[in-house]
V-type proton ATPase subunit a (Sphenostylis stenocarpa), 853 residues
Amino acid sequence: MGEAGRGGWCPPMDLFRSEPMQLLQLIIPVESAHLTVSYLAELCLLQFKDLNAEKSPFQRTYATQIKRCGEMARKLRFLKEQMLKNGVSPTGSTTQPDVNIDDLEVKLTELESELTEINANSEKLQRSYNELVEYKLVLQKAGEFFHSAQSGAIEHQREYESQHQIGESIETPLLDDQELSTDSSKQVRLGFLAGLVPREKSMAFERILFRATRGNVFFRQAIVEDPVTDPVSGEQVEKNVFVIFYAGEKAKSKILKICEAFGANRYPFTGELGKQAEMISEVSGRLLELKTTIDTGLLHRCNLLQTIGVQFEQWNLLVRKEKAIYHTLNMLSLDVTKKCLVAEGWSPVFATKMIQDALQRAALDSNSQVSSIFQVLQTREIPPTYFCTNKFTSPFQEIIDSYGVAKYREANPTVYTIITFPFLFAVMFGDWGHGICLLLGALFFIIREKKLSGQLDKLGDITEMTFGGRYVIMLMAIFSIYTGLIYNEFFSVPFELFGPSAYACRDLSCRDATTVGLIKVRRTYPFGVDPVWHGTRSELPFLNSLKMKMSILLGVAQMNLGIIMSYCNAKFFGSSVNIWFQFIPQMIFLNSLFGYLSALIIVKWCTGSQADLYHILIYMFLSPTDDLGENQLFAGQKILQQVFLLLAVVSVPWMLIPKPFILKKQHEDVCFRLNFTQALFVPSEIIYLRSDSDSLLPQRQRGESYAPLQITEESVQIESNHDSNGHEEFEFSEVFVHQLIHTIEFVLGAVSNTASYLRLWALSLAHSELSSVFYEKVLILAWGYNNVIILIVGFIVFAFATVGVLLVMETLSAFLHALRLHWVEFQNKFYEGDGYKFYPLSFSLLDGEDDML
């Protein structure tokens, strides 16, 4: 959302509240409208409103130009497909091309026609070449059939003649040649067909031929060793050469139909061996000529596509810019005189001077005799939300926007989320060994961010998402190292980094004993958990108690921060009702119960008391008058608890009852003032209030009589209940029910949200125990075998388990839980998130788009 420097203009960042916005009206001469929109798009600071929402796309002024740009985009897609098909990638930059849009349209038409003609000729030549290749195979394979048949016949004739010379024998035929010969008119003359059939269909082909002719054919086939390019489909297909001998025209017609049905390609063939050799020689010569012609055509097409590739990105960007400009111009309303275009849009207040300069520059560059008119409109319409972010703060802002876009000028949780989100993640992920691994991964993306930024389309979805959150991961890793040092865990192994342990054994028999068997011999371990706790039987109870209490303290602190943020919103919007009847009772209720519990935790830590805090909190409600006994931590605790309980009970009706009645009274006062104003002032003195429906009014009725308005949250809430005809509507029952739901939600949420923060303790414990299991049951177990192979296998298993489970699955789990704590437990105290983003017209966004308009 509005990265700093995206358009080259951004004020000093203030993430706490969105940028002040203003509604502008621009009256632009038609002759300078195109250049004006182009210059404003380069600024990236103006979001145009659609003033022609009631018109269909085909009824708008510039529908023809958009259709023209769409046609050019189609031609560019065709050129890109041709380049990708031939392995040519665009190499040019996305700088502004020298060619204008009219010349580009002519050039694209010529290139498309030329490429279409080249492709058509190439396809014809390639098909002819493939047919000749098949024809040559048929001549070779079928020629082998005839050659082998002729050789067999000659051998049989020689054998027959030798038998006649020896004399008649028992094997001599009873009828000699003269007796066998009959009338030549009664002899059957056989015809034959030759061609190729796909190998997978050859068996079925032969079977159908046999059945169709009732066995009156002679079928021979030979396998072609290498796949053949089919002339029709252009695909590589394994085929067999066949020769079919038949008798009669009726059989021939059946065979032709079967060949057509099976996709068998037939080729002319002669039975004379001499002519076969001539035909093979002729076909080989034609193949050589076609090969030379095809290679020349391919070279010409490759050179043409490389020439296109040099300027393709520039042409593509120009077409997308033109289409974006005309889309924007279609959102502008045409003046009655049809000489001016009227535009309305939102822009940050700091951009006023830059927009005015752009308007003047466009008027000069377009040689317009009239400059554009710039004026600011006063309106009660809620402006869009715009935060000026950079590559570091942008991913944190996206985390918040995924929940809901901040309402205009609402306090932005991102300011605190930058620190609290990675910190709460680290509380659940605390291990400085794992944190170093995460840090190395984040630094890899950060160091190579310039290279990877230009290859986002080549990255996978997960890699691209990880790259976008590289700075979030870096802070998560840094805080994980910090909390890992506090927990004193390096892949679950403790180290004495900050000095020796404060405890020592009384004797050698206490090695596996609890802390009762240890005595304090040195000063307290200076930072984090004393390493002596790890591996003892009391490790789990000690760390459970520590992390559970720490989770409550962190949760109560963050929830208090959320309630304080609600005060900041109420103070900024001038809503005293929300301060007195929302902020104050909520602070009292939360801190009377869980703030008091947090104070007891700190007191117990400081005094070393053995008091049961569960017992204290439960009986604070059940028996507030009973003595505390051994659970008393300080003098006057019983009276203080009764006061806190009373305050908590009083704060509930304090939140529930007064606010609806006060809103009703304020609504009645506003209605009285409006009626009084309408009765006293003449229409020419009435202040015009602009609403969404004003955009349908004629231009001369709007834009010149606007007056500044003081907007408060209460007035907006009250006046939103007015309908378009000015009739007053205030549903008190609806407001009261809404306040009742809000009160119940906060009271119950104070308990459930505090309990929800215990996930910090649970996830931290699970991460620590998983890490310990992998270390002890895999790595240490493999080390104990004193075998190099087992040790290597164990280390590989340990590495994969650590990366797959702890660095991937546990990272994702802790990330989602931290996300939940911010979205639900923190932001529901103050964040409405019902705004909408500021989307300015921008050419810089087109540079990163992969898909063309």
Summary: The two ends are 22 Å apart (CA to CA). DSSP finds 24 helices and 13 strands in the chain. Residues 4-9, 174-182, 681-727, 848-853 have pLDDT under 50 and may be disordered.
